[in-house]
Automatic annotation (TrEMBL):
Coiled coil start-end: none
Pfam families, alphabetized: OpcA_G6PD_assem, OpcA_G6PD_C
InterPro entries attached to this UniProt entry: G6PDH_assembly_OpcA, OpcA_G6PD_C, OpcA_G6PD_N
Name of protein: Glucose-6-phosphate dehydrogenase assembly protein OpcA
Organism this protein belongs to: Streptomyces hesseae
Ranges of residues in domain Glucose-6-phosphate dehydrogenase assembly protein OpcA C-terminal: 170-299
Disordered as annotated region, ranges: 313-343
Glucose-6-phosphate dehydrogenase assembly protein OpcA N-terminal domain segment(s): 51-165
Amino acid sequence: MKIDLTDTTASKINNALVQGRRAIGTPAIGMVLTLVIVTDEEHAYDALKAANNASREHPSRKLVVIKRVSRSPRDRAQARLDAEVRVGTDAGAGETVVLRLYGDVIDHAQSVVLPLLLPDAPVVVWWPVNSPSDPAKDPLGALGQRRVTDTYTAEEPVAELSARAAHYAPGDTDLAWTRITPWRSMLAAALDQQPGIEITSAEVEGEPYNPSGELLAMWLGDRLGVPVTRSVSGGPGLTAVRMETKNGVITLDRPDGALATLSMRGQPDRAVALKRRDTAELLAEELRRLDPDDIYASSVKYGVDRLNVAPAAPKAEAEAPAEKSAPAKPAPSPAPAKKAAKK
């Protein structure tokens, strides 16, 4: 069921939600959270489709905030709120309100969203694209206990990771981080099979400008305390992780984006499922836990600039012979030169 409201208010939207629930015969709310989706018109359809699929695991009220930029100065001076209320099968498991903001009300989106939040329920704010540099201080982000961004959609994804580290606040997370959960689980399980093994270095291979590769490399560097190299491949996504140990190389190789092979010395190669997941699966995973992710915080603060850095000792040893062999003969000292002149 859909109800269109033009030039409306938050109270009229709440009345339309009650009317819609009664019309389909479900007056009880029965939702566990409010999901605020901040996006533009271009990406609204895909974002809402993913949220509807995720809501089958997490029934929620979905508030889609679309800021419509007016073309003329007259239109920009006129504040207006249009809404589309969806309940029943059109809204997944829960209910949906699509909010289109015009004019000055764009700068006060939080005042529109606040009266529509479910009482006594957690709030998650998700930016599918164009996330703010500091989500916790954003007016809409301040309403949420959890703030979800996606650095993969940024123009410079790797540089965006530095901004995430600089402005991190408890409750921030990133779908680029969620994408590597199966990789982290599989690598941790591989190391558990060889307790006490000493790792000397690691390498993460994947597409260029893929922030998931950088996050996985930073996680390895932060957890293991070893130098990590980030190398480039043709993809899709992440393709391999190699960990050098004194007992050989542990390799997790996924060339096709679906099936990976885990190889380690002394054990037969094993095929493991590492399918690339869609946005709905990633969002559903993030909604399972609403407490701060301390492991993500530690990993993103590790720093992209610390990747691809060779150990200091080998570098010094390699340069030492070149420095010693540079001068062919020592230059004569000034004192012997003067004595020779007197003679």
